[in-house]
Each structure stands twice: as structure tokens, then as C-alpha cells.
């Protein structure tokens, strides 16, 4: 079974970069530009992993995460939240709201691979 990942970010550039990274790791990738659209996507098909931006219009990462963890099956996805500011408070809030790990922007494939390994996705990457 192919693993699935939902990339939630209001930046099309970040979504494109992240999509490329996850696709090299054999994930089937979906995208959403805000928390509201992400929640709709999760209600249709719950992904295995979610790369979640923190600051977004409409519904931010924090509100999305709290809502996600309350829906049936919403405890299943491993959530990696992305943040630009090295803000310990934001990181603590995210982990408290149910994030599994966090990634600082800008990120690259090595960082994503390492964080995914930490939350239990091992060895899915193609030999580069």
C-alpha cells in the first residue's frame, strides 16, 4: 500500500517543494492551502502523514490540528508541523495540540526524511 501525505500550506511554492520531496519517498501526495480545506480532505480520505504549516488564513495549523484530532480516525495521521520562527511557545502549543514532530523552514529532503523516521516512517525512500 502506498502511504499518503497531505501538504497543508498557503504557499504554492512550499507545497511544490514538499510534494517533490514526499513523492521521491513514495508517498501519494495531496495538497490543501488552508486548514479548512485540509479538514475537508481528511474527512474524505485520512492521510498517513500531514505536513502542516502553522500560519495560514481561514483556519491556521493550530485550529486545524485541534479539529483533526477530534474527528473519527483523526488520531491516525502523523503530523509534522512547519514553523519559520524558532518559537518555543509555538512548538509547545503545537505538540500539545497533537503534533507529532516539527520542522523548521526552510527544510530539505534530509530533514523531512529524518523527521519522518522519528515518527515511524522508515526506509520508504528510493535509493538516490
UniProtKB/TrEMBL annotation:
Response regulatory domain residues: 4-120
SMART domains according to UniProt: REC
Modified residues (4-aspartylphosphate): 53
CDD domains, sorted: REC
Alphabetized UniProt keyword annotations: Phosphoprotein, Transcription, Transcription regulation
PANTHER family registered for this protein in UniProt: RESPONSE REGULATORY DOMAIN-CONTAINING PROTEIN, STRESS RESPONSE REGULATOR PROTEIN 1
Name of protein: Two-component system chemotaxis response regulator CheY
Source species: Methylobacterium goesingense
Amino acid at each position: 500500500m502506498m502511504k499518503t501525505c497531505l501538504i497543508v500550506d498557503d504557499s504554492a511554492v512550499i507545497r511544490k517543494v514538499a510534494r517533490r520531496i514526499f513523492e521521491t519517498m513514495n508517498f501519494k501526495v495531496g495538497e490543501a492551502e488552508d486548514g479548512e480545506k485540509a479538514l475537508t480532505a481528511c474527512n474524505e480520505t485520512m492521510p498517513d502523514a500531514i505536513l502542516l504549516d502553522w500560519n495560514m488564513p481561514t483556519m491556521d495549523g493550530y485550529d486545524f490540528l485541534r479539529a483533526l484530532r477530534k474527528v473519527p480516525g483523526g488520531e491516525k495521521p502523523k503530523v509534522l508541523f512547519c514553523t519559520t520562527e524558532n518559537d518555543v511557545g509555538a512548538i509547545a502549543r503545537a505538540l500539545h495540540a497533537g503534533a507529532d514532530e516539527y520542522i523548521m523552514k526552510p527544510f530539505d529532503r534530509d530533514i523531512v526524511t529524518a523527521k519522518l523516521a522519528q515518527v515511524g516512517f522508515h526506509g520508504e525512500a528510493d535509493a538516490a
